[in-house]
TrEMBL record:
Function: Carrier of the growing fatty acid chain in fatty acid biosynthesis.
Protein name, UniProt field: Acyl carrier protein
UniProt PTM comment: 4'-phosphopantetheine is transferred from CoA to a specific serine of apo-ACP by AcpS. This modification is essential for activity because fatty acids are bound in thioester linkage to the sulfhydryl of the prosthetic group.
A cellular-component GO term for this protein: membrane
Subcellular location: Cytoplasm
Family annotation (NCBIfam families): PRK00982.1-4
Gene: acpP
InterPro entries: ACP (IPR003231), ACP-like_sf (IPR036736), PP-bd_ACP (IPR009081)
Organism: Euzebya pacifica
Predominant location category: cytoplasm
Superkingdom of the source species: Bacteria
Residues recorded as bearing O-(pantetheine 4'-phosphoryl)serine in the entry: 35
Stretches assigned to the Carrier domain: 1-75
Matching HAMAP family: Acyl_carrier (MF_01217)
Family: Belongs to the acyl carrier protein (ACP) family.
């Protein structure tokens, strides 16, 4: 399973966003996720993938692809 697949699964589990609504270029804004939702997403990703996401890093995430790149750069384990 890839980091991208894990993120898509998290978005479905936590926010009810179907996998077919998500691509790497999909913005969190397009998914109707606000800043509080992004904090919840970040915490879930930390738990699921075993990495720490700083608040400043989470605030910079604009697309699903941004999240994938950040998590992969931190050595996320899937």
């Amino acid at each position: 399973m890839s980091v991208y697949t894990k993120i898509v699964a998290l978005l479905d589990d936590k926010f009810g966003i179907a996998a077919d609504e998500v691509t790497e270029t999909t913005t969190f804004e397009e998914l109707d996720l606000d800043s509080l939702d992004l904090v919840e997403f970040s915490m879930a990703a930390e738990d699921e993938l075993g990495v720490k996401i700083e608040d400043e890093e989470a605030a910079e995430l604009k697309t699903v692809g941004d999240a994938v790149k950040l998590l992969e750069s931190k050595g996320a384990s899937v």
